[in-house]
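hey team, just a heads up i'm posting the complex here instead of the shared drive bc the drive is being weird again. everything in one block, sequence lines first with there labels, then the predicted structure for the whole assembly after. its three chains so it's a bit long, scroll down
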Amino acid sequence: MPEETNSSVNPSAAPSWPVHEDTTAKWFLISSIAYFFIVGIIAVVIAAKFVWPSLLGTVQYLTYGRLRPLHVNGMLFGWLLAADMGLTYFMVPRLCGVKLWSEKLGVATAALWNVIVLGAVVSLLMGWNQGLEYAELPLALDVLVVVAWIMFGANIFLTIASRKYDQMYVSIWYIMGTILWTAFVYLTGNFAVLFATGVNQANLNWMYVHNAVGLIFTPVGLAIAYYFIPKSSNTPLYSHKLSMIGFWALAFVYVWTGAHHMIHGPISQWLQTIAIAFSLMLLIPVWAVVYNFFATMKGQWYQLKDNIALKFLMSGVVFYLLTCFQGPMHSLRSVNAIVSKTDWIPGHAHMAVLGAFSFFAIAGTYWMIPRVFKTSLFSEGLANWSFWFMMIGGLGFFVTLRLGGFWQGWQWNNVAIPFIDTVVALKPVWIVRFFSGILMFLGIVSFSYNIMATILGAKDRPAVAA
Amino acid sequence: MLRKADSNFGFAVVAALIFFFIGGTLTTVVPPLVDKSWGKAFENNDPAKGPTGKLQPYTELELKGRAVYVREGCWYCHTQQTRTLLSDTKRSGWKGVDSPISTPDEFVYDNPHMFGTKRTGPDLSRVGGKYDTQWHRTHFRNPRDLVPGSIMPPFPWIVENQEEFTALVAYMQTLGRAKNWRPDNDYEK
Amino acid sequence: MQDHVYPSIYFSYFFFALMAGGALYFFVKSLKSGYLGRNSEEPKHRMLEDDEQGGIR
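-- predicted structure starts here --
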């Protein structure tokens, strides 16, 4: 087998490296950051609506029920998935030692993706909502997503198929997994559900909702972390083989757990039990991955002091560990009886999608943008501010919603307390959430401003040599 | 074997899909085949087996109302499931009668399903028959007029649209009434 | 709802055993084929090097 790959240890192989254009990666990243900013405003507005419920309330296009899906879809598909795709277009050609199969196809994908996101904004504000969580978009847009995904997948797969080295780095497996699994998860969640009703439909819907995070954002997020943690710290990964356990365990156990969204609900008890058992098994892939990252950082932690990408990456890893411990725990029936349906749930969801995967994507952006534009970052200081804004805002958000949700759950279980009193009691929690949201938004502003200033001023600041 | 997994493109793709499809099939395709109650509408004539009643398909008016409920995203804050928790059966109860738990056979005509994941407002799985049209009219216009401290948004554009309002209330009055669990306690009586 | 709680628990145990057995089998097989040596760790070093375009770091 491919033992000649040892040649890469030899620096004389350097001249054969291809020149990457990265046009696709640039376009995906720039548009995703624009959506991060715009949808961030919506996020703050809906947090404000919890405190001042009549805010903008008489305008039907801006009511909570229409802004919330816009926030969720905008952040998931407009920001995070687009940023992840952009970073994939950056990582895969480098890991394979070849050029991207087709930059033209890639740019077309980026254009189509923007059409989808803008279509989503219009249709969600108009209330054209399919009524299924994460699958709110009307059918026409779903079809476009499938087309875009095929374009993305074909481009990446053909690049991987033409790779220079036989043995694939971890990030490549995760990206292949993301592309394959997402295809089927998305088809289930947006097309198969339309042929089912009631509990059967709910089961398909939760399979999609859970795996939208578990088999789309998790693997592509981990691919990013697996690439940028070694890269930005200039330290080899602790173990290639350990990462295999994480990958194959993820491939196997994640898909089973959809029904844990309906624990105690009107769905067969045995299916709930299966979902709980597999939710606990999720600890295996999570801990394998997290151990690998921490072991990589052994002796290198001092680098966190002034390496902005690494700061985001390693705090993202800690959030990933925490949120993936919390997930299996609150799938247990006893814990679920307290926290399910409370504000604990948005706390958990935000720690995964914002605290872990968005942190990875932000880190990747901070690392990639100066390199592809051949410049240096506009301001390290501002980048540091963006980190602390997001960190403190995020912690405020996660901690208060967790505690608040737990408290809310206890109150619900005490039937002597009327429901409305449990709503009034949460008001302080929602006020803290609103101010944490403002902090996170400031983080988004400083991040996006920094990146845009880096790109626009690229000609004035030449890259610093290594 | 492991070398194939990280060096052979086709092997990795096929293995990743096989792993995925084992769990995918067993948790989505198989359950409705094993548990027939997922697809059979509720019907019970024997009081010894719990509340009697029969689940009716939605009328055209109720479906219109349901579309409004979906459009306005009511389901983001109101769940529709009385879970197997004592507090849920009490909170969904009415005038001292505990609500029966929700079962899959009560939802076979629901498309899209409205079970929900977040309970910012109270659960609505048994709300049908509890409040009359006038109550709903006032409540949709400004929830805080009837429930001080509520954080539900006002929905004046529904109240002002007589057709939509009638349909929405007609839909809400059906919720949870397939099981006849509190005879003579509805607002109509 | 029909109650399949116990069969599902036994099923989960069975599955877990099956998976653990499979993992062990492939581990031993890979050990024998010499995969678990140092040279299979090669990609993690290689990925640090292909920094093209003037070697910005």
